[in-house]
Amino acid sequence: MASGSTDPLLPRAGAARHRPATGGWRSALFIIWVEVAERFAYYGVSSNLISYLTGPFGETTAAAAAAVNAWSGAASMLPLLGAAVADSWLGRYRTIVASSVLYITGLGLLALSSTFSSPQSQQCSSSGDGRQVCRSSSVQRAFFYVSLYLVAIAQSGHKPCVQAFGADQFDATDPGESSSRSTFFNWWYLGLCASATVTAAVMSYVQDNVGWGLGFGVPGMVMLLGLLVFLLGTRTYRFYDGGGSGAFSGVGEAVRAWRKSRRRGEGGGGGGATVEAEHGELAEEVRGMARLFPIWATCLLYGVLFAQPPTLFTKQAATLDRRIGPSSSFQVPPAALQSFLGVSIIPCVLLYEHVLVPAARRATGVATGITMLQRIGAGIAMCAVTLLVAALVEMRRLSAARDADPGAAVPMSLWWMVPQYVLFGAADVFAMVGMQEFFYDQVPGALKSLGLALYLSVLGVGSFISSFLISAIDVVTRRDGGTSWRKVVDVQ
């Protein structure tokens, strides 16, 4: 394929395809909107999923939290595969389009599955305390989980490619565009969090008070709109070719080099220099990726904390007094508290960009104010503070619950949980954006999607660790006839 090809669905050969009207902020704004739509769709499902599982599905809190964490972990780990496919085969543009279509299909099936939640389709039985517990049928559960994991598969191609494609619109060799790329990551995350804030506040109310069919259907319609906007911006985009590198092509190169090495050994001929050259570039890429592992492992504390707001934090909020005020009858949906993450992140991004960076730049001489690793480290330290505050609030909740009447809401306002959300939002600005920029910057040019998938894998492994901890604690607390830990979480 010649570099002058005009087909936007095919990757360009060589370096960036430059035209006066391509790339830069004009293209980036189209791509940021696509991410806003995708995050609205994703959080429209994930932010209140535990309420759906413990409600219409009849799951216990421990089982529901484990299921949500397993799904979130898969959704965050699969981008490693999606990025490899994009970098080595389809290209980022085509991967985004294909993933968007799959996303819309999954959300449509998810909305359809929620309409099956009728009393006739559920299996009900009496619990040990005399309450009737209803669980969905096997057919409904299978249909629901297939639809849910279809969304996870769609996200695996969409999430790493959209952000890498957006960063591609800024040329790292151009001083002006290079500085704009760092700003792009900040504004990217601001748009993402604005979308998540609206989703948590609006969709949790729709799902809890209107219906789950509409609650899952609206994200699908927003995702469709996002795809249309993305296609409208096609002629403004700057396209890159991976140059034959990437995960799959790298494996192919290694196999070809191994075969040549065997033929050389059998024939006693030369060619060693050629084989070494073929191995050299691949080996350097592998070593570069391996050097990222210590940083990746250090970030797992953040990944574990990231799994808590849509699971345990939401279930804890459900046990509290959720009225806006003492005389109000309106009940705040538990998942709506997640909107405080965005409420915190948006001003923090602005303060970081316009106050902290200029001040730090004058003090350090670093163009970005502080280094990427310093930014990540500050975010992880703030995560530790967030966990401490969350533990203190939970101790206060349990103390209040012991004095409350059985079955009644805990006499403690849900606003007690706001500080931990605000602190976590501030930590996000440092840790999340720092990881995005660091992993994008440190991988070879042909593996940019895979680099962003690495930061997502931190969230995936963090979710799996959280799921393991929940299941392990539940088993330990039930041992020898003890009180299940999930009953402590559910205490009212």
Automatic annotation (TrEMBL):
It is found in: Membrane. Gene3D superfamilies: MFS general substrate transporter like domains. One of its GO terms (biological process) is oligopeptide transport. The keyword Transmembrane helix applies. InterPro entries: MFS_trans_sf, POT_fam, PTR2_symporter_CS. It is a multi-pass membrane protein. Keywords: Membrane, Transmembrane, Transmembrane helix. The chain crosses the membrane at residues 93-112, 187-206, 212-232, 332-352, 372-393, 414-433, 453-477. It holds the Pfam family PTR2. GO terms for molecular function: transmembrane transporter activity. It comes from the Eukaryota. Belongs to the major facilitator superfamily. Proton-dependent oligopeptide transporter (POT/PTR) (TC 2.A.17) family. This is Major facilitator superfamily (MFS) profile domain-containing protein. The lineage of its organism: Eukaryota, Viridiplantae, Streptophyta, Embryophyta, Tracheophyta.
